[in-house]
Design goal:
The protein has one helix and five strands. By secondary structure, it is an alpha+beta fold.
Length: about 80
């Protein structure tokens, strides 16, 4: 568990490079108004499903790594 937390901290600090080869999956979405990162563990033999959506004033990053599911919704300038 400690290794997973350390890996998550390193990936969030330095990006997602090389995460998938250890059963740790990382997705990023960067827009001019913000950045979202999801880091999850999951089966080594299965790639996660990732959905990214950017619209006027919002962005959505969704990741499902097989048993774990996370959604980040961000709003930006110009939204009520």
């Amino acid at each position: 568990m400690f290794t997973l937390l350390m890996s998550a901290g390193l990936f969030s600090a330095f990006g997602c490079g090389g995460a998938g080869d250890r059963g740790v999956y990382c997705s990023e979405l960067a827009t001019p108004t913000g950045r979202a990162t999801i880091i999850q563990s999951g089966p080594v033999d299965k790639k996660p499903l990732v959905r990214k959506e950017v619209g006027p004033g919002y962005s959505i990053l969704e990741q499902d790594s097989g048993g774990n599911h996370a959604i980040v919704i961000q709003s930006g300038p110009g939204t009520d």
